[in-house]
Specification:
The chain has about 350 residues and is mainly α. About 70% of the residues lie in helices and about 0% in strands. GO terms for molecular function: G protein-coupled receptor activity; photoreceptor activity.
C-alpha cells in the first residue's frame, strides 16, 4: 500500500507528457494557454472568412479566372488548409492545455502545416517572379499563360512535399513544440539528423523563396523608377510608382514579420544546443506565423481593384453594378496582373489600376 501511494505521488508530481494532460503550471500559467487559444480562435475565424471569399468570388466571376489568379487561389487554398490543420487544432489544444489528439495526429498536423505553409511561401515567390518577368521583360514580351500558372501551382506542392515527407521517414521528426499544443519539425532536440534537416529546410523553403521575392521586387522597383524618371510630367506615372513602392514594402514586410522569426528561431535553437528558451517564447514564432493566413489575402487579393469590385458586387447581392473601370483595369495592380504598354515617348508606359 505504501509503495502504491509513493508511486502515485511520483506520477502526480512529475511533469506530464504532451499527450497526457494539461501542461500548466509546468510550462506556463493557464492564462498563457487561454491567451493563445483566443489568438488562434480569431485567426481561424478571420482566415476562414477571407480565404473562403477569395475562392468563392474567383470561382463565381469568370473575369477573375486569369492565369495569375490561379496562383492567388492556390495561395488561398494553402492558407485554408493551414487554418484547418494548424490553427484549429492549436485552438482546441490550447483551450485544453495539452495536445489532446495524440501522437499520430501530432505528426500529421506537423506534416500538413509544414506542407501547406511552404506551398504558401512558394506561391508568394511565384507571384513576385511573374511580375518581374512581365514588367522588367528580361526574356522579351513575356505572357503568363494558364499552362505556366498550373505548372507553377504544381511546383509549389511538389517542392513542398519533397521537403516535408522526410521527417515521416526518419530524417528528423514532427514533435510537440514550445507549449506542446502544436507540432512541427524537431528543431530543439539537437543531433545531426535534426540539425541537418532544419538547415536544409531553412535554405530550400525559406531562404530560396525570400531571395526570389527580394530579387523580383527590387528589379521591379528599379524599372518603375526608371520609367517614372522618364515621365516626370505625368502625374499618373508618379502616383503609380509611389503606390507600387508602398505595396511592395507591405508585401515584403508582411512576409518577414510572419516567417522570419520562426525560421530564425528554429535555426538558432537547432545550432545552439545549450540555449535555454522558455516554452511560451518558443511557441510564439510558430503561432505568429499562422497569422499569415489572414494577412496574405488582404495584401495580395483584397487590395486588387478588380477583385474588390467583384467582392462588393457579390456582397451587395448584385445591386451594385460593375463599372467599366472595374471590369477592365489598366496598368499596374500588384495584387493582380501587372502590365506595361509601349509608348512613343518611353520604353514603358505605367499607369495605376
Amino acid at each position: 500500500m505504501q509503495a502504491s501511494n509513493a508511486s502515485w505521488v511520483e506520477v502526480r508530481n512529475r511533469t506530464p507528457g504532451p499527450f497526457e494532460g494539461p501542461q500548466w503550471p509546468y510550462l506556463a500559467p493557464q492564462s498563457t494557454y487561454i491567451s493563445v487559444a483566443v489568438l488562434m480562435g480569431l485567426v481561424v475565424i478571420s482566415a476562414t472568412l477571407v480565404n473562403g471569399l477569395v475562392i468563392v468570388v474567383s470561382v463565381q466571376f469568370k473575369k477573375l479566372r486569369s492565369p495569375l489568379n490561379y496562383v492567388l487561389v492556390n495561395l488561398a487554398v494553402a492558407d485554408l488548409l493551414v487554418t484547418f490543420f494548424g490553427s484549429t487544432i492549436s485552438f482546441v489544444n490550447n483551450a485544453q492545455g495539452f495536445f489532446i489528439f495524440g501522437q499520430a495526429t501530432c505528426e500529421f498536423e506537423g506534416f500538413m502545416v509544414s506542407l501547406t505553409g511552404i506551398v504558401g511561401l512558394w506561391s508568394l515567390a511565384i507571384l513576385a517572379f511573374e511580375r518581374y518577368l512581365v514588367i522588367c521583360k528580361p526574356v522579351g514580351d513575356f505572357r503568363f499563360p494558364a499552362r505556366h500558372a498550373v505548372l507553377g501551382c504544381a511546383f509549389t506542392w511538389g517542392w513542398s512535399f519533397v521537403w516535408t515527407v522526410p521527417p515521416l521517414l526518419g530524417w528528423s521528426s514532427y514533435v510537440p513544440e514550445g507549449l506542446r499544443t502544436s507540432c512541427g519539425p524537431n528543431w530543439y532536440s539537437g543531433g545531426s539528423s535534426n540539425n541537418s534537416y532544419i538547415m536544409t529546410l531553412f535554405v530550400t523553403c525559406f531562404a530560396m523563396p525570400l531571395s526570389t521575392i527580394l530579387f523580383s521586387y527590387a528589379n521591379l522597383l528599379m524599372t518603375l523608377r526608371t520609367v517614372a524618371a522618364q515621365q516626370k510630367e505625368q502625374e499618373t506615372t508618379q502616383r503609380a510608382e509611389r503606390e507600387v513602392t508602398r505595396m511592395v514594402v507591405a508585401m515584403v514586410a508582411a512576409f518577414l514579420v510572419c516567417w522570419l522569426p520562426y525560421a530564425s528561431f528554429a535555426m538558432v535553437v537547432a545550432t545552439h544546443k545549450d540555449l535555454a528558451i522558455r516554452p511560451a517564447l518558443a511557441s510564439l514564432p510558430s503561432y505568429f506565423s499562422k497569422t499569415a493566413t489572414v494577412y496574405n489575402p488582404i495584401i495580395y487579393v483584397f487590395m486588387n481593384k478588380q477583385f474588390r469590385s467583384c467582392l462588393l458586387y457579390k456582397m451587395s447581392c448584385g445591386h451594385r453594378a460593375l463599372s467599366s473601370q472595374d471590369t477592365t483595369p489598366a496598368g499596374i495592380s500588384l495584387p493582380g496582373r501587372l502590365t506595361t504598354s509601349a509608348s512613343k515617348g518611353s520604353r514603358n508606359q505605367v499607369s495605376p489600376s
